[in-house]
Model the fold of this input.
Amino acid sequence: MKNFRKILALVLAVVMTVSTFTVAFAAEEKTSGEKLKALGLIAGNEAGDLMENGTITRAEAAQIVVKVMNWDVEPATAYTFADATWAKAQAATLVKKGITAGVGNNKFGGTVKMDALQVYAWIYAALTGDTASAWANPSLLSAILSADQVAAVIATKGTPAKRSDIFTGMVTILTTEIAGTTQLDKLIEAGVVTEEAAVAAGLKEAPVTENVITSVELLNYKEAKVTFSKEASDDKAAYKFAGVAVTNVTLSADKKEATVVLATALTAQAKVTFNYEKDTYKFEKKDLSIIDATLPVVVDVKTTDKGKLTVTFSEAIDPASVISVKVDNGMLYASVSAVSADFRTVVATVSSATDGKEYKLEISGAKDFAGYTMAPKTIEAYKYEAVKAPITVTVKEADSKKVVLSLSAATVKALNVANFTYILNQVPTSATLSADKKEVTLDFTGYNAPEGTWTLTIKKADEMFEDSWGNKSAADITLSFTVVIDKTAPTVGIKEVKQADGKLVVVYNEAVVTTGASTYANYEIQGADGKVISSAFVTGTAITNKDAKEFTLAINKDAFASENCTLVVKKDVIADASGNKVAETKITFATKYMRLLDATVKAVKAADATKTSKIYVTYTNSMLATTTDAAKWAVSAGEIKSVSFDEGSTKVVVITLKEDTAIAGLVVTTTAINDVDGNSLKGAKLSVTFAALTASDVIASTTTMTAAALDAQTVELVVTGRVTEGIATTAFLVDFVGDTATKTATAAAVKNVEVKDINDVTCTVITIALPELYKVNAEALNTSKQVRVEATGLVLSSGVKLEAMVQTVADKIAPTVTGDLKATVASKTATVAFTETVLDAKGLLATELVVKYDGKVLVAGNDYTVAVGANLTITLTIDKVEKDKEVTVSLVKSSNYAKDAAGNALAAFEKTIKVVD
Done:
């Protein structure tokens, strides 16, 4: 087993470089041989045929194993067997390696067919170096095959192996993970197989090309975990849970997972919505559940500084908790500081603790954000032990003006700038300690180091760097690092433009000097005609700056008349910290969500005098709910009874007038109407001309009806426009034209009514269930359209009463099989009748149909042929068909090929019957 990793590589190469052998484990859409061919590991014969149904001989297997193992081939003269073979050199090589001793009687048996067990016994011996007979002891094969596969190999003993069988075994070995990797991965790493080929073969997923969120979960009421496909973001502003911002982000070691802390704890609720937005990537998940039914517990206690113990909890702790850390039953005074920024830890300051002494600790009072209080934690013998390690100093970052040092522990002493010397004995103008006293920032602004590799010397460092335990650094420290001068100018883009909020957000790829970037004079907006829009910016409003990378400019939302505009960032004004200036940049952006709204108006007078008249105002975008506030609307004569959206549509506002309102020359006025994107109404006055109510006045320009049979007893109608009245059992007639026996189904029953929008057209979907007597004949429907539906008395939401509408029924019924499967010994045929004629069945035989005889899967072309039309006829070409054996014909999924005249795919089926005389 010492060569096990090598095993997999060689087994693959066997079947792949020579196009030879296999053991049937499972059928696949793409055969194992095709997968191996896609990998470039096998090629087939001269015509590219993989000969998957062919068998394998001992001579062929000998050639494969020798090639796979890359052994030096013995001379043909070394062959000592009495029988002749073309593979003398290979046979002699196998004998020398102890793989085989022949078939007995001094014969090699080159033409003898091999079964799968014999083939795998050879592979096992070659790969493991163990020449014990796996043929005699098949359990040895468990070294290279699973238990199920070993059993399958044993079951085929005595039956010549097919190449397809061995191909499948090879694919299994390729994809089996051993010690965290697969043989396929190793072949890719070695350059034998390309990543693209592995993806094309369906053996590997396409590599991730963009960074996306793969999972998100709430850990408790205060914390969540977000996993990315590549690298997680530490930008707190990008995360929001139920609208709550994030205050802390901690990345995992591989940086693919972000654990975030919410600014405020979530309240108990059924579901939480998570939103993430970073650069151009947006993600939303609406159904997060909060699960926090466990008590917080102490997971770690350690001495982190002199006289201080850090206690870490299993989850976020409420800062309002009254946490107690009692030392030796209170004999030593201990005070607990505030909960940490990630809400996971507290620090207890202990008086008079002795180095190396054991103390009894009692910790209690911690409460999580779900309100659960911890069970008190007792540590009988906690050893308070000083940390004894010298302070180390490393360079965290450096540029031409600044060097930042990281310390392994907080220092308790003041810094002396005179002890730091840089190039040519330069001393920093200042040396600043961070808040945690673990970081030193040295300012060399007055010097500006050139690009290159330099050293920083810290003299008497042990006099400055000392922690609370008394640990010091080395006396003198010399640090080497590289300074790279930034010579690349920043680039700029538009993050978003939103008229509703009156803002245009400009984003730079790095921090820039804010003076130029935050001045309106350095930006301008041009219309589609190239002219500057002088009123584009609200210049009296300060430009909002975020991290010197993102700037929000106040825009005049009424200034954008053209469909597209161009933002111009002026050149040589805005620069980064290294002085690289932004070149003049022009960015064209669409203003379709900034343009002022257009509205089309149609007014109709009810045909029935008892009904009120209505005005329809149709917008190109969905409107805010406040649009239906009647106080926002007025008419020049009469009164408004109500304002509402047309049923189910937020694009159409219906103004219902009170009875007896004058209908001539009305003008509708409105104020403060906005769509969901913040666009405002163009023009406050909308002229209205009334007309008598007709079908052409509904929201859809014309009213149509389509009909389709979904199955033998179900017809679906789709009516453009919203049908609100007249849907009843008696409203529909199903007419079987020319069929005197069942001419008209007058008892058709309405099964279901659904109102929905299809491509922005409001539609009513009506499902009619036909009585048993009036089942639709799919064949007649398909070929002659002998079925139609008539609808009468339907009334639209606008009040329009539709005249009788007649529609021929379209065929949406998938063909399937009917009747029994008939199989006979004499004809060797099995016939399945279809419910209707099936056309264009090319490909059905080779790729989709599964035929079994006596439980065994038959091979298309070799064991049977197929004819498709009104019936499916299977002609068996196997040697013998016996009475009472079973033939099974099945289609495992809807066909890609066999369809009826209307294009409906043949539905999946399975039919089994015994063979008769």
